[in-house]
Design a protein that fits this description.
Helices cover 19% and strands 34% of the residues.
């Protein structure tokens, strides 16, 4: 993994080109079974976006996501959280729907997440019981109208319990931002010359899951963008 670089963070509305997900899917039963869904959590439903344009990107969005899926644990900052495959024999293989990862969050414990959706340009994980959050998170790559490649992370979740909610209020927000902005940075350094300009970070309060969203089997956005995968 190349060394990361310092990148400024811009707080404000998300203006990437990830489109809202529409239409339900019907996942295999083992994929949707036993998830920690948002309505099982506590506190407000939050949508958090983190994205950046990759400077002089050398790869197509689909190739970036294939690499991310094969080496997912390497992109998380180990001083904050450590991901590990439940099946160690699948190291360096693409993450697949139904696969489980363990994540150790420093100061909180070790929990589980499951891959619930995957396509050429995105990967979505959902939380399992015991996790500090109840919901899902999508990682995607796509092109904007200028043909730049954007790497985008969007989570949509509540705190996993009242106890986790108060813990998040005191410390979790900063950890979330640090974890996922570092993830964006590492992807950008691996796929190009780092982030062009700033990493954008935004948090929105939602009254409910947006129309067309599928909390058991769908991404939080469709990595469509402009110009396809080439």
């Amino acid at each position: 993994m190349p060394p990361t670089v310092a990148v400024p963070i811009m707080l404000g509305p998300a203006r990437g080109n990830g489109e809202m997900a529409h239409g339900p899917r019907h996942p295999a039963e083992h994929v949707a079974e036993g998830l920690l869904l948002p309505d099982m959590g506590a506190g407000p439903l939050l949508q958090r976006d983190y994205w950046g344009v990759i400077r002089r990107c050398r790869y197509a969005p689909a190739d970036i996501m294939d690499w991310v899926g094969r080496h997912f644990p390497e992109f998380a900052p180990e001083e904050l959280c450590v991901f590990a495959r439940e099946d160690a024999s699948r190291e360096d293989q693409p993450l697949e729907e139904g696969e489980t990862l363990r994540v150790h969050i420093h100061g909180a414990g070790t929990f589980g997440v499951r891959v619930i959706h995957k396509n050429a340009r995105s990967l979505t994980l959902a939380t399992l019981p015991g996790h500090p959050e109840a919901g899902r998170i999508t990682f995607g790559a796509y092109r904007n109208v200028h043909r730049d490649v954007i790497f985008h992370i969007r989570s949509r979740a509540r705190s996993g319990s009242p106890v986790h909610y108060w813990g998040f209020v005191t410390a979790g927000e900063a950890m979330q931002t640090n974890t996922w902005t570092e993830f964006v940075t590492r992807v950008a350094v691996s796929a190009g010359d780092g982030v062009l300009g700033v990493i954008h970070a935004d948090t929105s309060h939602l009254d409910a899951e947006p129309r067309g969203g599928d909390v058991e089997a769908g991404p939080t956005f469709l990595a469509l963008g402009s110009g396809g995968d080439d």
